[in-house]
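#help-structures

NK: newbie question. if I give both the sequence and a SMILES, will the prediction place the ligand too? trying with flavin-adenine dinucleotide
OV: yes, paste both and it writes out the complex. here, I ran yours:
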Amino acid sequence: MIYTLNNYKTNYKNNFDADVCIIGSGAGGAVTAYELASMGYSVVVVEEGGYYTTKDYDGKPLNNMKTMWRGAGSTVSFGIPPISIPAGKCVGGTTAINSATCFRTPEHIIKQWKENLRVDIHYKNLEPYFERVEKIINVTELPWDVLGNCAKIVKRGADALGLHCKPLKHNVINCKGCGTCQFGCVEGAKQSAEVSYIPLALKYNTTLLTHCKAEKIHFKGMKAHSVECRVYDDKGKSVASCTIEAKIIVSACGTMITPLLLKKSGINNKHLGKHLQIHPCSRVVALMEEEVNGWAGVSQGAYIDDYADEGIMLEGIFVHPSILSASLPGAGREFFELTQQFSHVAAFGVMVHDTTEGAVFGNMHTSFSWYMMNMKDIQTLKNGIAYLSEIFMAAGSKKIFTPISSSPVISSYDDIEKLKKSYLKRSHIPEVFAFHPLGTCRMGGDSNCGVVDSFGKCFNTDNLYVADGSIVPTSLGVNPQITIMTLATRIAEKIAEQLRK
Ligand SMILES: Cc1cc2nc3c(=O)[nH]c(=O)nc-3n(C[C@H](O)[C@H](O)[C@H](O)COP(=O)(O)OP(=O)(O)OC[C@H]3O[C@@H](n4cnc5c(N)ncnc54)[C@H](O)[C@@H]3O)c2cc1C
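OV: that's the protein plus ligand as structure tokens.
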């Protein structure tokens, strides 16, 4: 059963009860819901956003950002530089607006969690969970023609330099590469949570409450017993209230919100809201002699991990022309002339495996994050931009646009060498984004090192779990959705064990 705005009783309190109440329907929440519902437990999923499907998408970024992106895409961390950290606010969560790239958690990262934080997870034991997730969301390798010309050009440059450019894996069925992944998949190819896990959960005893925002979890002693919510219409007006009583409560609101909900609900832990890591990233745009037509092909086609030891991952990032063209330099006629060559523009991204930690503050109505990139990460980002410029040059580009204010245009190998040797200030890279916030309710061996245990159970509570990106203790160096879904599958199994008892 799905509750949309029309289904709520507006003048009454809407009461629900279930074995499990899951707050959030993204990567973590949707997986937990399906796994538990399919084991026979009754589930209520509370989701603040609406339910959008292919028929609602027109491929126009601004239209879909207004409805599906939190704050219409305005979520930014404070610091120098300020960093845009977008997230989904809709059924499917951020998976509905992500680029569909899939990576398993690197084995050495899991070892670090064990060594540093006593997280009791072994890579070998995770393998069946990875396989289960990858099967349900159909993780697959697409042909180079669908990956697009940007990926092919970067591969050509990488081959010339002896680097390894490899195709990324994606969770899609029949993807033709129309490149609008981040604004709702107009082909209906992306197997994001609202297309895969949520419909599967709804086949069982699952109630999905859309437009419903959880505001507080109530406790009796150490036992969480209900979730207090309000229903907001599309203009943000409160139109109804809801209470969900459940034996188990799971917060899956995402890294930026779960710590605030826990704090509001009385959870007290020195790590709550801290250790925010985000994979800061940026882009390099290159003018090619050949026609690129970068919009034809998935937006994130290929990757190069030869520089992983330096904390650098190079990954495709050709976004909608209306957005990418904004990163071209110049103004007036100069800008106009560049846009006339847009079919010759190639773009690729640089992602940093960060060492910086930030934090999330505020309350359920006004929240903000602080993330001041440390100088090591700034130089790592700069080096990634230099390596990528070198790759584009080796692929034949004569004019490369970087996001670095002190070297905006690169047109020779000398320029690249100069960039490599330079020491950047924070303010020299104004254009930084981040798509993978993690760590604000991290797992740990006990409450001295984490907020939740290795199965997502919140320390000092009997039955409150967290199953989203916030429990991932550190950044991964790779995109996180498979990690989050895998951990959620494992957490659902643990919850079922507790319910059986
Ligand atoms: C543009 C973009 C591209 C990305 N591309 C990739 C990619 O290609 N590969 C990859 O692995 N990762 C990618 N990511 C990241 C990935 O999608 C996220 O890491 C992942 O979806 C996070 O899962 P989650 O469960 O923590 O949170 P989310 O998926 O964000 O789900 C949280 C849900 O909780 C809801 N919610 C929040 N607060 C409340 C509340 N109080 N009450 C009710 N509901 C609430 C939200 O509306 C949301 O639906 C991308 C992210 C972005 C922004």
